TrEMBL record:
Keywords tagged on the record: Membrane, Transmembrane, Transmembrane helix
Keyword Chaperone: no
Domain Heparan-alpha-glucosaminide N-acetyltransferase catalytic: 31-155
Organism of provenance: Kalanchoe fedtschenkoi
Coiled coil: none
Protein's name according to its UniProt entry: Heparan-alpha-glucosaminide N-acetyltransferase catalytic domain-containing protein
TM segment ranges: 69-90, 102-121, 141-158, 178-200, 283-304, 316-336, 342-364, 385-406, 433-452
Source organism superkingdom: Eukaryota
PANTHER family given in the database record: HEPARAN-ALPHA-GLUCOSAMINIDE N-ACETYLTRANSFERASE-LIKE PROTEIN (DUF1624), LD22376P
Phylogenetic placement of the source organism: Eukaryota, Viridiplantae, Streptophyta, Embryophyta, Tracheophyta
Amino acid sequence: MAEIEPDASHLHHLITEQSQPSKEISQKRQRLASLDVFRGLTVALMILVDDAGGEWPVIAHAPWNGCNLADFVMPFFLFIVGVAVALSLKRIPNRAAAAKRVALRTVKLLFWGILLQGGYSHAPDELTYGVDMKKIRLCGILQRIALAYLVVGLLEILTKTAQPAELSPGHYSIFKRYFWHLFAGACVLVIYLATLYGTYVPDWQFGVGDGRVVTIKCGVRGKLDPPCNAVGYVDRQLLGINHMYPHPAWRRSKACTADSPYEGPFRVDAPPWCRAPFEPEGILSSVSSILSTLIGLHFGHVLIHMKAHLDRLKHWIVMGIGLLVLGLTLHFTHAIPLNKQLYSLSYVCVTSGAAALLFSALYIQVDVLHVRYIFLPFEWIGMNAMLVYVMAAEGIFAGFINGWYYEDPRNTLTNWIKKHVFVQVWHSRRVGVLLYVIFAEILFWGIVSGILHRLGLYWKL
């Protein structure tokens, strides 16, 4: 649970300094509302891009290089995890208890990740379930979060000290205090870059639906193109090609389909790799994704050690702008392109910088100025994020509703609402689907989460 000391009572003091709480108040902690809002906003964003991205490809994942709205979801989740780790583990002085908590949550995340994205559930479009274990997908969103959470959680536990929370004067004291975190981040970056640019990628093969085996010619080192990058090679070697994601975003690229950026039939002259699987949450890219969580962890440390709002915000905003500038410079100079599939360094910087600035803006609005009412649906979703992720983002609730149909499996309540309440009213499928996702999914789950919040019911890992 994220926490923050209560704020000062007068608005003009809120930005400049945070008053010292009394002993009675300091014993009563409250959730960091802006972090809940950020988490809920990210879950809502995931629902939006997943369910409306087919009609609005500008918000869906970029086919390869580039960064669309959907590409911010995963880094935002990891950034939030980092902030939450700093705030939650500070309340557990016993290292053994903290390690047990981290290990247990990691196992739970892995379990739900395999169950939800391994292929067992076909919700909401198909009323079937089950998966061929020879083709089960091993990686996914929750699995990536589990790895980052485990690494960052153990790092936080191993470097936990009994030193007082106050920092020595100077802008760099917090970096000195957490030197080993910086060192760990540098090691992660070196391992990722050395593997990405130093691994030799040989020719490889995969089978297509008609029984043919296709050979992809590579024999290169340091390439960042779809067929011959080291990220895919590592996954093929360690996971096996049958356990990778069969519908990668690159299928919407211009090289693969004339309907790009929409998904469509393959071009006659499409290169063979267009039909190949690729794991967007694979092993090497998940190593790089740890950096997003480490950056979030640092922001959590700032929240703990810096007591004045202005000090926190100056640190966060300067760091966020710096990350954005560095990432965009790497991309536009063609040194390292923005690429979510590879989780490139420029992608880490740009998405983490965006997370930093968005979190800062929410912190000002929600925790400093106490403007919370307009964010309440997101805050409620954020407090029950796992429930909404499973039921809405993974389509389990929609799959259950679709199980009740009239005569034809397509005659379901969800399809009727989408068609008659939204699409036909606006005479546009694109607009209708977008509004359906916003009101019938995101707002609906915001209200449900609010009711559960009033009842004190939460799904916690």
